[in-house]
Amino acid sequence: MKKFKEKLSGHIFFALALSSISALALITIFIIVKGLPIIFKVGVINFIFGTKWAPSQGDYGIFPMIIGSVSVTLGAAIIGIPIGIFCSIFLAELAPATFRNIFRPAIQLLAGIPSVVYGFWGLLFVVPFIRTHIGGPGLSILAGSIILAIMILPTVITISESSLLALPRQYKEGALSLGMTHWQVIYSVLVPAAKSGIVASAILGIGRAIGETMAVIMVVGNAVAIPQSILDPARTLTTNIGIEMGYASGEHQQALFATGIVLFIIIMILNASAQYITRRK
């Protein structure tokens, strides 16, 4: 009877795991089937590197959206990743226990806030601040980068801190016994030893940023043009899908699914890179 229950539990868990993989496979197949026809019709080069997006005229070039996605994501990474890594080092090595017990739930709460709330906050505070004190229309790549930088902080902080806390205590104790200061131990021993986890947190944070839609729609301006500076408005791949999918049909709808294929490939590459880096060591 006991063996039967164990086998039954194993089959149930296997079925649940298989259902998750099946859902992913169905989504992938659906996106590919819906998006590939327009890619073959327009041409891969023209679709990816075309600079004109005018569905009413039959022009489907997503290069401006790719540039917008890369610009906003790169800005978010430059702002958010260093802050997240420094916060994780502070929590793991420097923060008092009382402060740590307050800060960790706050980070978890930050991860649970809906993206539309971030976008609304950015629209009320970040955009007017940029327009008044820095210049430009306010709705810009810079505004989107700031909002996304805040949104990726929980991912970067949590994974980086876990990587630091998972290190054997002998690393720190051995370095201190050799006469190194606490800061030297952190800089020269702990951070290099946790490098794979920290890099993985950065890659996952970038994946989180490039896939965000609602908050970005509200603050980047959504102009279908190649931006010339971080103060210019832009449109990302995700915002393009979110804005136009509600009324698209025919080839226009297929082009949006094809945009999803490009975005899907980018995120898969980022996630695979994170998995490779964490498993390598």
Report the end-to-end length measured between terminal Cα atoms. 42 Å
Shape: globular
Instruction: Write down the oligomeric state.
Output: single chain
The percentage of residues in β strands lies in under 5%
Question: Would you mind describing this structure in some detail?
Answer:
This protein is mainly alpha-helical. Helix content is 79%, strand content 1%. Strands 1-2 form a two-stranded antiparallel sheet. A hairpin with a 4-residue loop joins strand 1 and strand 2.
Short description:
Helices cover 79% and strands 1% of the residues.
Characteristic terms for this protein:
12 helices, 281 residues
Chain-wise SSE layout:
Layout: H1 2-42, H2 44-49, E1 53-54, E2 59-60, H3 63-94, H4 97-112, H5 115-134, H6 141-165, H7 169-177, H8 182-193, H9 195-210, H10 214-219, H11 237-244, H12 251-280
